[in-house]
Design brief:
Layout (H helix, E strand, L loop, with lengths): L6 E4 L1 H5 L9 H14 L3 E5 L5 H13 L4 E7 L2 H11 L5 E8 L2 H8 L3 H18 L3 E6 L6 H14 L3 E6 L6 H14 L7 E6 L6 H10 L4 E4 L13 H10 L15 H12 L20 H9 L19 E3 L5 H10 L6 H17 L3 E2 H13 L5 E9 L5 E9 L2 E9 L2 H12 L6 E9 L8 E9 L2 E9 L2 H20 L11
Parallel strand pairs: 1-2, 1-8, 2-3, 3-4, 4-5, 5-6, 6-7, 7-8
Antiparallel strand pairs: 9-10, 11-12, 12-13, 14-15, 15-16
Helix pairs in contact: 2-3, 2-11, 3-4, 4-6, 6-7, 8-9, 14-15, 16-17
The structure holds 3-methyl-2-oxobutanoic acid and zinc ion.
3-methyl-2-oxobutanoic acid binds next to strand 5 and strand 6.
Length: 514
């Protein structure tokens, strides 16, 4: 690693997953981790191993799966936390324990009920313990930006002496400004006597919308690791967004002479995967990955773009992985062309998954005039997603208009078909009532239902995302189809499958009606 390489520490699976309604199951976390590796992030924070059995399993499995990236687990400054983190990450080729304790007067007093001396003692003891287990230890000073600077310098020196290799100074509450945050790094790196034995890291929250600006200021101040999430998901207003940091460093190398290992052409795929899995849609005007990030509406801009795209584009859509060959496939495309297109889009499906995807592609090409890359991505993601579902949507019939709507639905539940005919105030209401009739789940509530068009045009595919809540647990489902009602049924049933897994129950037996 050269001195101008900025390490990317991705915390989508930990801080990102902590945002309300963003939880992912094991399979989804593994999918995201695989894409993060393809994207080229250096460190993946896979979870908080002691938080739950699910988190522990996710960290362990991500550790086993990762081929290249370092895998970290978060741990509080407690021996039990650190040992649990180690148990999970020890399977990784390059494991890391990331331990933290709050250092601001407010947090030490109100949250930890500890004196500053007790916090210094805890840092020394817990970092040393972590280092005895794992060669790579990161220590974070939670609420660093509201910490008194002499105390912060002492805490950092203690952590490095105890064996921490990375020192993270989080702006936990998104309070910093670029000037103050950059100065914090300059000051600590200059003043802590053993600072040269560690890499300094940024971790910014976006409460004032300054997460990325603060991150870049810290890099200019000497930080060589940045902590961030895909699409900027995370607690409250979120974390600094990986894609924005990576592209800012790439595009403005003239004023920020740094490089990252991010493969920028994988950014769009990573963004889509995370928004699809979490159901958190990316706002259209979001930098780098928003639907309008490369759209030019005004006549003057369009005229400039036709003459020379650099008039209004500081980076190309291709550089972040936006497909340029819009119209790609049609109903005459055969297996070989479809396979070639999948490879071009980065998919390597097994024989059965390929066959299922091809059948759906043909149906889509029959129903839709033009099949775009985005359509194929939505279709294949949808197919891969429901691979292990034990409840499947077989047929959907909807009658709707000015009167009450009716739905006739066929579901396959563990291989057996069940049919329900229901009415509702509208087609979605009738359809979801049919699902509830076949698989009763009275305690759960539909908390969110969102529809999004994959491309433009009235024949666009719909991507639907739903959130089901039951006894404090939430599950998210998604589905895609050129028919909005079929996509809705798929999304709801996808969430229901996950709910069954969470309950630890099979959906068969006397729970099934119809
Ligand atoms: O925001 C924060 O302070 C954190 C730490 C636990 C690193 O997420
Ligand atoms: Zn955080």
């Amino acid at each position: 690693m050269t001195d101008n390489t900025i390490l990317i520490f991705d915390t989508t699976l930990r801080d990102g997953e902590q945002s309300p309604g963003c939880s992912m199951n094991l399979e989804e976390k593994l999918q995201v981790a695989a894409q993060l590796e393809t994207l080229g992030v250096d460190i993946i924070e896979a979870g908080f191993a002691i938080a739950s059995q699910g988190d522990f399993e996710a960290v362990s499995e991500v550790s086993r799966q990762c081929q290249r990236a370092t895998v970290a687990s978060l741990a509080r400054a407690a021996i039990a936390d650190i040992e649990r983190a180690w148990e999970a990450v020890r399977h990784a080729r390059a494991p890391r324990i990331h331990t933290f304790i709050a250092t601001s007067p407010l947090h030490m007093r109100v949250k930890l009920n500890k004196t500053p001396e007790e916090v210094i003692e805890a840092i020394e003891r817990t970092v040393r313990h972590a280092r005895n287990l794992c060669p790579d230890v990161e220590w974070s000073a939670e609420d660093a930006t509201r910490t008194e600077s002499d105390f912060l310098a002492r805490a950092i020196e203690t952590a490095i002496r105890a064996g921490a290799r990375t020192i993270n100074l989080p702006d936990t509450v998104g309070y910093a400004t670029p000037e103050t945050y950059g100065a914090l790094f300059r000051d600590m790196i200059a003043r802590v006597p053993n600072a040269d034995q560690a890499i300094f890291s940024t971790h910014c929250h976006n409460d004032l919308g300054l997460g990325v600006a603060n991150t870049l200021a810290a890099v200019m101040g000497g930080a060589r690791q940045v902590e961030s999430t895909i699409n900027g998901i995370g607690e409250r207003a979120g974390n600094a967004a990986v894609e924005e940091i990576a592209m800012a460093l790439k595009v403005r190398g003239d004023v920020m002479p740094f490089r990252t290992n991010v493969v920028s052409t994988e950014i769009t795929r990573a963004s889509r995967l995370v928004s699809g899995i979490t159901g958190f849609q990316v706002q259209p005007n979001k930098a780098i990955v928003g639907a309008n990030a490369f759209a030019h509406e005004s006549g003057i801009h369009q005229d400039g773009m036709i003459k020379d795209s650099s008039t209004y584009e500081i980076m190309t859509p291709e550089s972040v992985g936006v497909a340029t060959s819009s119209l790609v496939m049609g109903k005459h495309s055969g297996r070989a062309a479809f396979k070639a297109k999948l490879i071009e889009l980065g998919y390597d499906l097994g024989d059965n998954a390929f066959q299922d995807a091809f059948v759906r592609f043909k149906a889509l090409a029959d129903a839709k005039k033009a099949v775009f890359d985005e359509d194929i991505v939505a279709l294949v993601d949808d197919e891969v997603l429901r691979g292990h579902d034990s409840i499947k949507v077989k047929e959907v019939e909807i009658y709707c208009g000015t009167g009450p709507a009716r739905a006739i639905l066929t579901l396959e539940v563990d291989g057996a078909e069940h049919v329900a005919a229901t009415r509702g105030s509208g087609p979605v209401d009738a359809l979801f009532a049919a699902i509830r009739q076949i698989v009763p789940h009275d305690r759960s509530v539909l908390e969110r239902y969102e529809v999004h068009a994959v491309t433009g045009g009235t024949d666009a595919q719909a991507e639907v995302s739903v959130l089901l809540a039951e006894d404090g647990r939430t599950t998210r489902g998604r589905g895609a189809s050129h028919d909005t009602m079929v996509a809705s049924a798929r999304a709801y049933v996808n969430a229901l499958n996950k709910l069954m897994v969470k309950r630890g129950k099979q959906p068969v037996g006397n729970a099934i009606a119809g």
